[in-house]
Every structure is written in structure tokens, then in C-alpha cells.
Records
---
Amino acid sequence: MGTIIENHAVVLFQGDSLTDGGRNREQPDELGRGYALMAAAQFSAKYPGSGVRFFNRGKGGDKVADLQRRWREDCLELRPTWVSILIGINDTWRRYTENNPTSADAYESGYRELLEQAQGGMGAKLVLIEPFLFPDYPDHDRWREDLNPKIDIVRRLAREYGAALVPADGLFAQACAKAEAAYWSYDGVHLHPAGHALLANAWLRAIEA
């Protein structure tokens, strides 16, 4: 089995804190300590002659509207050939913690604009990662009413734009049958290293032919 990422491609990871992974913003090539680093490292080890370059521009706290505001500088100007996006949990979270909701329509409209500019504007190929929540955390059951429609939107957009899809919400639900949620995540959203590794492996499967 090979990869659908072509030799000498430029792969950009984008999103919120889950992608950010504590990266050093002063080092443009730094990938953080999360799934983006793990996926890039495993890919590079498996395909050492590919010449593929990886960049991470995830930013903690971002909603889809924040991604829109910095999309030119942190995506388009980098001219990536592949763009991987994980965004959405803050669009749900802020509704319940700050009374600052993002409607499903606004989320879809904003997300679609990102994809149009990346794919339609410069021909980038896409990897979309579902936003996700872990079970067994206070209040997360009621967060589902907001997040589930956003997950459905990501799935629909992946079909529409021919993107590789990383089914992260189902992935972590399945993982919780093997180990409790606290093994993978320390707050039901952010990941321990094992959770990042699981997500990185799923990302790699999504870009394999």
C-alpha cells in the first residue's frame, strides 16, 4: 500500500489547539508535539525519498471564523498542495462557556469558504478531520446537540470536495471501548499522547491509497 500524497508535496496542518500541539510560533517549520508531528514523522520514516514537506499552522482557541481571518497568511501564502483541517470544537465549546454560539449554517459557510479558496483557488487536495468529543465528561452529552450537526457537515463537505476523511469522532468512541476516556484525553477534548498517536495513525490511513 502506498500514499496518495505525491512526491515533493507541501502538506499543511490547520486547526485549533488540537493541531497546534504547543508548537513554537517563532520556528516556522516546527510541528508541535501532537498528532501533526506524529503523522509527519511516521510518513517521513515510511517514505524517506518522497521529499514531502510538512507545516503546522494550528492555533489554540480558534473557531472556523478565526481560521477564515488568517487563511490568506497561514494557508494560501504557503501554497500547500495538501491542506489538512481540524476545526469545530471551539465553535461548540464557546456556546456553552461564553454564550458565543456558531450556528450550523455559519459553520458550514465558513468551512466551505476555506475549502473553496484552498481547492478552487489553488488546487490543493484536502484532508478533513471530524471534530470530536469524548464520553463520560460533565456536560458533554448536551454539547452533542451542537457538535453532531457540525460533524455531519464535515462528512458532507468531504464527499462534496473529494477530501480524505478522518472519522475522529467514531475513532475515539471506539477507543473508549478499550480504555476509559481519561486514558486518551485529559478533559474530553484535548488529547494525551496516546490520543494524539491514535489520531495520527488514522490520518495516515486516510491518505493511503
---
Amino acid sequence: MKGSNILLVAIAGAGLLCGCGTPSDTATTSREGRLFGVSFQTMNNPFFVDLNEGIKEVVEARGDRLVTLDSQFNSLKQKNDLSDLVLRDASGIFINPVNWEGIKGSLLQAKRKGIPCIIVDAPAKDADLALCTVASDNVEAGRMAARALAEVKPNAKIVVLHLSTNKACIDRVTGFKEEMAKHPGMEILDIQEGKGTTEGGRPVMRDLLGRFPELDAAFPINDPSALGAVSALESAGKLDQVTIVTVDGSQPAIKAIQAGRLLSTSAQFPREIGRISAEKMYEHLDGKPVEKDVKVRVELITKENAGSFLKAE
């Protein structure tokens, strides 16, 4: 009888060692397919929500699973999140960098473990360490914004609400300036950091209005900061005096265009960026060659075509 008890204890102990209770990632992977991860600079933006859905759609269609991580615009948090994905032996990682110069260490860590990384939406300085970069043609998006503004205000006095840690935004401002150079009457009065958020854009626009009474146009680098600028202009009673052009193509921005609160937004296609990124990852894992730089189309949205971009609710 004593020997039987010992045998039962041994069996129970073996059961615990084999993973009874919380299953390990390896055990989960065997049941749910391979693990992939994506780290976004923020999830407090409809653009990144849609981009995530594009990745997830492809990953889940292959029987795999996606872990989505929100860096909350914190580069240290993003570094730690990416390190965690590497330690979990992710089959592939998608990175939307908080700081375009700040992910070299993470890319090297993944490379040492043989984990492919794809940069999505916002290019990185050390992109050569990644499998590829999939992003909108952000330079062209900036050009589109400047062209739209030049058509209605060829002598515009402009302020720019920037996010200079983000390469996509740097490219947008570069394209804007390139196109603006063709219109000698247009002038940039100041460039300030708008943080890429509604909350960040609002006080910056309020301050710029106070410092530049001649200001009559603004180029916030994305829709959330543009909507923050709109809020500041409405509070100051100057929305009808300042023309705003921006980039993203989000649903709130499209509705603002229809309401006459924004002139234009250069539409990106985040779900398409996500889908293409995931497809490139699987092409690589299937042993196929993948190009290093994949550009995704952009398209100008104005009041004339806004209705065709609006999703049914």
C-alpha cells in the first residue's frame, strides 16, 4: 500500500512538471499555431487599430496568433516589450517604432535569435537589420497636402505641428516643403512638436495662434493632431480663418472634411499596410525572397471625394 502511494505521488509530480496549470508558450504554440508579435507606438489612434487588424487577419487565417503591444509613445516600454517577444521565441515581430533612431538594440537582439522583424508604417534608421519596411509613401503624402493647400491659399502663412521622432512624419514634412518650394508665396512661420495626438495638438495650436496673428494655414502631421488644432481654432473663434491640411485618412478626419473643418487629408491605407506586412513575413518564412522597401499608395481626400472614403456605420 505504501509503495502505491509513492507511485501516485510520483505520477502527480510528473504531471506538474509537464505543464499542468498555466501552459508554457511552447505548449500554447503547439495548440494554437505560431506566435507573432506587433509593437505599436500607440493604440490610441484608429490608424494603428486598423493596421493591427490587417496583420491579425492574415496571421489568424494561417492558424497562428498575434500578440499586440501598445508602447504608449514610450521608447523604453517598446524596448522592453520587444525584448519580451524575443524571449518568448516569437516566429516573427512587426515593429512600429516610437523613435525611428531607437530600435537598433531590439533589432540586433531579434537577429541573434533568428527572429525576422518587419518595420511597419514608420521607417527606422537601422532598417537594414530588419527583413523589410512596409510603409505609405509619406513623402508623397506631404506633397499632396501642400498641393491641396496651394490651390486655395497660394500665399499661405503656415505652421507645422510635427512629431520629429517619427520618420514617417519627418518624410511628410520633407514632402510638404518640397512641394511648397514651387509656390514662392507660401511661408512656414514655425514648426512645433504636436506629439501626434489630439491632446498634444490643441495647446500647441493655441500657442501658435497667440504668437502669429498672420497665421492662416496649418499642416499637422496626422489626423489626431489636426483635430486637436481644429479644437483650438474653434475655441478661439478662428476656424474660418485657418486652413488645415493633414495626413492619415481616418474616419473622424473625413467627417471633419465633410463638415468644412479640415480642407484635406492624405489618405493612407493602414489595413493594407498590415495585410502586406503579414504576407511578406509569411513569404520569408516560406523561403521566398522579400524586397527591402515596400511602398503603399496614398490618396488625397477632399470634400469632393470624402463620401467615397466614409465607412458605413
---
Amino acid sequence: MDLERSGRMETKEKGRGFIKEFKDFAMKGNVIDLAVGVIIGRAFNKIVTSLVNDIIMPAIGVLLGGVNFATLSYVLKPAMDGKEAVVLKYGSFIQNVVDFLIISLSVFIFVKFISKINSKKKEKKVITPSEPSKPTREEELLTEIRDTLKKISNK
């Protein structure tokens, strides 16, 4: 009976330890920064997708003679007997490739910008002393004591 109770107590303590450990992990700055980054990234993705679908691709379509990329497709197998057609939507794929290229270019520029800022901060932190600092009065006295002791021990 006592073994059974102690086993349950250990399990409860392990459970509390796990919850505490998870809480400590979840509240670390890196995890919160990552969550914020994911949320901002999703919002940025929506903006870029809209830019590609609603502005860039229609402009490219007009330049190519009025092509609507959203509807570009190739029917592999037509609809038959109540089954849907098998369609290869390559226009949508082209839009997604352009979408990816814009997002990856934006991320590259952002990372390069942040790296440049961080390197400037590191350069500012490097302090070059113009002249050596003067020893304090205590250091001068300790030096005199040391020198005197050396003279005494050499005699």
C-alpha cells in the first residue's frame, strides 16, 4: 500500500516538474521571439501573396497579351461520369513561384540589414584606450611596499 502511494506521489511530482520545465521553456525570450516572428511572417506572406496575385501577375499578364495566370491550366483528363477533371494548374504554380521569390528576396534583404546593424553595434562596443590609466593611490603604495620588500630580501 505504501509503495503504491509513494509511486503516485513520484508521478505527481514528475508531472509538476514537467509542467514547470515546460513553462520555463515556453517563457524564454527565444520562444516568444520565434512566436512573434511566425505571426509577423504569416501576415507578411498574406501581403506578398496579394501583391503577386492582384498587382504583379495581372501586370505581367497584360504585358504578355492579356494572359490571366490564375486560369492557366492544362486538362490531363476531362470530367467523365460524374468525376471531376484532372487539371494541371501551372498558372497558379507560376504565381506561387513569384510569391516565393519576392518573400525570399525580402527575407534576404532584412537579414542583411539586421547583420549590418549588429556589426555596427559591435564596432561601437570596441573601446580603444587612448592612454593607459594612472594607477590609483592604493596601487602606488602597494608597488612601493613590494619594491621595499624586494630590496630587504635581496640584502
---
Amino acid sequence: MSKHLRRELDKIKKKMLSLGALVEERTRMIVQATVGLDADIAQKIIASDWEVDEMEVEIEEECLKILALYQPVAVDLRFLIATIKINNDMERIGDECVNIAERLMIIAKRPPMQYVFDYTPMSEKVQAMLKASLDALVNLDVDLAFKVITMDDEVDEIQTQAYDHIKEAIKQYPDRVGYLVNLMLISRHLERLADHSTNIAEEVIYLIEGEIVRHAKLSV
């Protein structure tokens, strides 16, 4: 491998680490905002979304430039393919944080309710999944990546519970449908956050072992 290619790949790795740290911080903030229904934190997340978008575009352009200039093969090609996909999932995680923040802003403008689904367990699991998937990427840890995939079912189960609880609340408080629907949609966005963390874990497995596992979750 040429020194130039190695240098370019190392630059991309550093940028991916920076994007991962930024996305992890956004997720920590949205978890805090969700648990506390904090509109101020939600507003900060919305206002700073451009930072994630800008980094995502920059990394993708760098990857495409390397593919065009160096035509890498084998492990290096696999690294770039996985990086492009992980980069996209990180950007989507940023988007889902914004989606949750927007729901929180709507909820904050309406009279509070005594009934509020406790999103603490779900939020903490989602945050743990993202951290684990990024740790798996940094340390090239296959076992940790597989663990993230198994955690996804736990988040799906909590989302189902949230849906059922809030559906019952809508029956009891038909005059508060707007508030409760937005509360319900938060569970959907949290579940999508978990899905993107799972995608990152799957790409880590592909990066290390060259194995595509996204259609074989039941055998994990």
C-alpha cells in the first residue's frame, strides 16, 4: 500500500472518531431531554444539527475521492465501504435526535399531563447501544458488535410497551390526543436510534470478518 493511501485512510479514521464523538454527545443530550422533557436542550440539538450533516458530507466525499484516486482492494476497499455506510447511519442518528427534539418542543408548548410514559429505561438502552457500537468500531471488537445486535430486541419490546400504554391513555384522555401522539412518536424515534446503532455494529462485523449479517439476525 502506498504511503499516500495509508495517510488518507488514517485521516478518514480520525474524522470518523470525531463524528462518532459528536453523535454520541447528541444522543446523550437527547436522552437527558427526553427523560426530563427539557425543551431547552431540545432547542440546542435542533440548532446544532448542521454540524453532524457537515461532517457526514465531508467524510463521504473523502471516501469517494480515495476510491477514485487509489482504487483500493481487499481490506482497504472493505474499510471504505463500511465507513460510507456507518457514516450515513451516524448522520441518521443525528436526524433522529432532531426528530425527538422537535416532538419535545411541541409537547413543551402544551399543558403538562400527569400521565407520562417513563422513557428512562428505553433511552438508557439506546444510549448504551450506540456507545457499544462505536466502541466496537474503534476497537474492532466483533463480540461487542454481536452484543449490540442482541440488544435491539430489548428496545423493540419497550417500544411496544410504550405504544400499548399510550394507546390506553388516549382512550382515557381523548382531549389530549395531540400531546400523547407526540409522546408516542418519541418511542418510534428512539427505536430508530437503536436500529442505526445495530446497523453500525453489523458493518463492524463486515469490516472485520467480511461477513454480511444484517439478514441473519435470528442466527446471532
